[in-house]
Amino acid sequence: MSTRYTGLIEKYKDRLPVSESTRFISLGEGNTPLIQLQNIPRLIGKDVDIYVKYEGLNPTGSFKDRGMTMAVTKAVEEGSQAIICASTGNTSAAAAAYAVRAGIKAFVLIPEGKIALGKLAQTLMYGAEIIQINGNFDAGMSLVKEVADHAPVTIVNSINPFRIEGQKTAAFEIVDELGDAPDFHCLPVGNAGNITAYWKGYSEYAESGVANKRPVMCGYQAAGAAPFIAGKMVDNPETVATAIRIGHPQSWDKAWNAEKESGGWFDAKTDAQILAAQKMLSQFEGVFCEPASATSLAGALEDIGSGKIPEGSKIVCTLTGNGLKDPDTAISQCKDAHPVTIEATLDAVKKVILDQM
Ligand code: F0G
To answer: What is the b/e burial string over 294-333, where b = at least 16 CB atoms within 10 angstroms of the residue's CB?
Structure first.
């Protein structure tokens, strides 16, 4: 049986650490929509081009699939029988799915009660070995690093360099589509693997002349989980955006390097700002992302408003995960929506419509 590949390793294999004999572990990830916002720029009265890279349309609903296709491909190539990660939810879902695809085992450490419902549902369905801990992501991360020295498991958190390799392809896709890098790239920062990966991707394209420039990198964190803004690790991170509830980011130096080399900055957004941006995207653009993802737009909007990001700029915001990942937070934000319940008659339906017009 011949295997047809459709994912990002196939597309970018010349720029990824694979060979002719590598078996790609793929679910058709990547090639996600870059959607130009139409209504929000008008609403804020600013002359800016804002695009969102909608990573929630990857096979498990987040950008993690980019890194996981590469990390699991290499783990299998190196003969690994099992992978392990700590996760706030999305990495665990991706690890579980790609492990199934590869026919190997996945162990995932998650903070008990602190991962969004959709992510838990996915990870259960894919059949990973779920280890819930009475501790946060940072505690899980240090356990994973320790246990990997004592058990035959490959770590697939973003400290695994192949994760970064896979994730850098998002920057390639953006340049391929826009014809060059944007002026500004805004993204949520948790463990800081993704900002590291984008910067690597943009840098490689600039070095080989595919892009003429690299963007200014703007990293946004949740105010209650903002080590890059504090300038030091944070011990008890808290935020509604559970995906980025991280106080000890692993790619600390690499993220600072991206910020410095690009002339960019880190900033923090409150939970209220994050949720407002999430709702705005849904209600004015028809794009539903999870709370952590909206941190990028929340940050961009504030910096456009203040002029830090000037008018005339081309801006890309990464929307890291699908809104369906966290139905609880979405529903709790729409308490005023009051769905009506009526008799199942033509008259009753007609009345509702006419009342609303
Ligand atoms: N957005 C979402 C939806 C995420 O799931 C994550 C990280 C980030 C942003 C931040 O990316 O860590 O590369 O800076 N989620 C990890 C997880 C930690 O376990 O799923 P980062």
So the answer is: bbbbbbbbbbbeeeebeeebbbbbbbbbbbbbbeebbeeb
* Residue 65: DSSP 8-state: H
Q: How far apart are CA 35 and CA 32, in angstroms?
A: 9
End-to-end CA distance of the chain: 58
Whether the CB-CB separation of 216 and 185 falls below 8 Å is answered with yes
Chain position carrying tokens 């948790």: 190
Sheet holding 34-36, edge to edge: 34-36, 49-54, 314-319, 184-188, 216-222, 265-269
Ordered domains of the chain (ranges, CATH): 8-61+163-332 (3.40.50.1100), 64-160 (3.40.50.1100)
Q: How far is the CA of 347 from the centre of ligand 1 (A)?
A: 49
What's the pLDDT band for 232 if we cut at 50, 70, 90? very high
User: Ligand 1 pocket check: which of 68, 90, 196, 242 to mutate, most ligand atoms within 8 Å of Cβ?
Assistant: 90
Question: Where do the DSSP E strands lie in 270-306?
Answer: none
Q: Kindly report the protein residue whose alpha carbon is nearest to atom 4 of ligand 1.
A: 243
Beta pairing class for 129-133 and 154-155: unpaired
pLDDT at 1 over 80: no
pTM above 0.70, yes or no: yes
Q: Tell me the pairing of strands 184-188 and 34-36.
A: unpaired
Of 292, 69, 67, 313, the C-alpha closest to 185 is: 313
Query: Residue 3: pLDDT above 80?
Result: no
